[in-house]
Design a protein that fits this description.
single chain; three-stranded antiparallel beta sheet; 225 residues; Serine Threonine Protein Phosphatase 5, Tetratricopeptide repeat; 7 strands; alpha+beta; Arc Repressor Mutant, subunit A; 2 domains
Amino acid sequence: MTGLHIQLLDGFRLDCEHSPVHVVPGARRLLALLALREGPVPRPVAATLLWPGATERRAAACLRSTLWRLVKPATPLVVATEDALALGREVEVDFRRATAVAEAPGASPEALALFKADLLPGWWQPWVQAEREWWRQARLRALEALSERFRSDGDRHHAHQAALAAVQTDPLRESAHRTLVELHLADGNPAQAVRQYQTYRTQLRAELGMEPSPHIHELVRTLLR
């Protein structure tokens, strides 16, 4: 662990030596933007994204002021050159860690906790919304893969939690509902499997006017009879 940590999942937070640091809104947005980007961000791009309603000159001035007001710990928080800005190399970001974990082959309850979290909830900026939608899709795939890994390892409890988190993220995602139905059947809970299927069917009919696929229906066909 380094001394600086930026949290983007479940809300913004900056920690220095394990203690929270107050960050003014403009600096908060700047740090979040740099934390979401892997490489340096050109100064004009950062200024335009952070102050979209301002003139180019005014946005550049706001950026300079924000950089001046940033907390300045011993470890560089932001590396600023004449042309670009980047997050300091030693700054840890939970979102970057979560994306790396999503691509890892193992399964752990720690990974499950990461994938349950939303990216910067309540932030309306377009550059945040684009990343949030990417994260939503990435975490759905990761949660389903994680559920399958837990199930292969015989850990049906965490397999169920991962599939349930996927359903909560996207209530109309059939593959996640299907996994929950299969897990209930494997646990010897046919009534719960039917309830899960019927919940999904009701939501799908109400929102899209569609029926579940034959694949998930076949799992509970004999129970419905």
